[in-house]
Structure formats: structure tokens, C-alpha cells
């Protein structure tokens, strides 16, 4: 995903429009939705090129460190980004803390996961410092509220990315092989490779979270910027 990629350049322009204070909330959401669609289309394009032998795209791994506070919830956000983009995750835990997450998938998809997760984590962390429970549940701790807020945020991101990926497959131009078959085969190969490497490990038991922040976090996740180039733009602005 290079700086000169015309698809990423189009995403930048869409998000610049969405960030314009002169546009309405509905217009901004439309621009954000279109950007998410282009992110998904980029993944389909790379998959089709690899299937046709026009580019090299191999299965690999990417290890991303997690930091407290809320390392388990940040790891959940990473998984919520990775799975719709046809990757799998392995959490490296020490007690209740997640030290890091290994992401397993095709390299073009790993690049999308890393950029999207880094940008979304920054967005979520910025908002998390401001959110507070509304007092409807007396005695609710700030930590409990924020954990469920992050859970809601991650769920909304997962839903948006899943829909965008499905639509990208449905609308992909016809080729020697259909995008649906290419994506299905790639997903199966990733799962088989993941199982061969980590299949003996047990899945963690589902978490039980107490807190009232889910709906607020989900609402924030529906508005989150899904531009994979957002982090690059921020870094340039800080130089």
C-alpha cells in the first residue's frame, strides 16, 4: 500500500471531504462509507492479481504489541479488524494482560490490518480519555464503562468492515475466476495454515463484561474513520 497508489489517493480525498466542517453529518458519513468500500476493493484487487499470477502475495505473520490499560480490549479491536480482512489472530497472554497479538494472513491483507488497526486504536484511545458513564447505574466504575465502550466500538468496526468486504466481492468485475471463489480459497488457505501452526491451542472462554458503555462505543465505532492512510497523514503533519 504505497503512497502513490491511486486507490489510496482517492480514499484520502474522500476523507478530506468528510473532515470538512462545512459538510453535513450525513454527507460526512457518506464519504466515510465510500472510503471503507475502497479499502475493501483494494483487498479484492490484490487478491485477484495474486490469483492471476500478476503479483506475489504469500501467507505470513505480523506481531503487534499491546499496551495497558485495556490490553485485552485493544486486542479484541485488532481481532475485529483482522477477521473481516481474512486474517486470523493469536493472543499472547500473561494472566489478564495481553502482551501482543500475532496476526496470520496474506501479506497484502496484513498491511491493511496494521494500518487500519493503528488508526482506529488512536481514534478510540483519544475518545476514551473523554467518555464517562452517565450515572444511570450508580457505582459503576470508569474502567467497567470504558471496557464495554471499547467492546461496542470494536463490534461496530467489525460490522462495517464485514459489509464493505462482502460488497467488494459482490461488485468485483468478472475475471477468469470469480472474486467469491478467490476470496473463499484464500480464506480457507489462511485457516488451514493457521490450524497447522496453532491448531492445538484452545480458544479462550468468552469474557463477561459489566458496564454500560457498549451502545456509546458502538455509536462511536459507526462514525470512526476507516481511512488506511490516516496514520500516514498524521505522521506527516507532526513532522
Automatic annotation (TrEMBL):
One Pfam family of this chain: DUF2786
Region entry Disordered, spans:
213-239
Q: Which residues form the DUF2786 domain?
A: 8-46
Stated name of the protein: DUF2786 domain-containing protein
Amino acid at each position: 500500500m504505497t503512497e502513490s497508489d491511486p486507490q489510496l489517493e482517492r480514499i484520502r480525498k474522500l476523507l478530506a471531504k468528510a473532515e470538512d466542517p462545512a459538510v453535513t453529518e450525513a454527507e460526512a458519513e457518506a464519504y466515510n462509507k465510500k472510503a471503507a468500500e475502497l479499502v475493501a476493493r483494494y483487498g479484492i484487487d490484490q487478491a485477484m492479481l495474486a490469483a492471476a499470477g500478476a503479483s506475489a502475495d504469500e501467507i505470513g505473520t505480523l506481531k503487534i504489541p499491546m499496551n495497558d490499560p485495556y490490553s485485552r480490549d485493544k486486542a479484541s479491536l485488532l481481532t475485529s479488524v483482522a477477521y473481516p480482512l481474512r486474517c486470523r489472530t493469536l493472543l499472547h497472554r500473561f494472566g489478564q494482560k495481553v502482551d501482543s497479538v500475532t496476526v496470520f494472513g496474506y501479506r497484502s491483507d496484513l498491511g491493511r490490518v496494521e494500518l487500519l488497526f493503528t488508526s482506529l486504536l488512536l481514534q478510540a484511545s483519544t475518545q476514551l480519555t473523554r467518555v464517562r458513564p452517565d450515572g444511570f447505574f450508580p457505582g459503576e466504575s470508569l474502567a467497567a464503562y470504558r471496557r464495554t465502550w471499547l467492546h461496542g466500538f470494536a463490534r461496530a468496526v467489525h460490522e462495517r468492515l464485514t459489509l464493505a468486504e462482502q460488497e467488494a466481492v459482490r461488485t468485483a468485475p468478472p475475471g477468469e475466476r470469480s472474486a467469491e471463489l478467490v476470496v473463499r480459497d484464500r480464506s480457507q488457505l489462511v485457516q488451514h495454515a493457521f490450524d497447522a501452526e496453532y491448531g492445538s491451542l484452545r480458544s479462550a472462554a468468552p469474557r463477561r463484561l459489566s458496564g454500560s458503555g457498549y451502545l456509546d462505543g458502538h455509536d462511536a465505532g459507526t462514525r470512526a474513520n476507516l481511512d488506511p492512510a490516516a496514520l500516514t497523514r498524521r505522521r506527516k503533519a507532526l513532522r
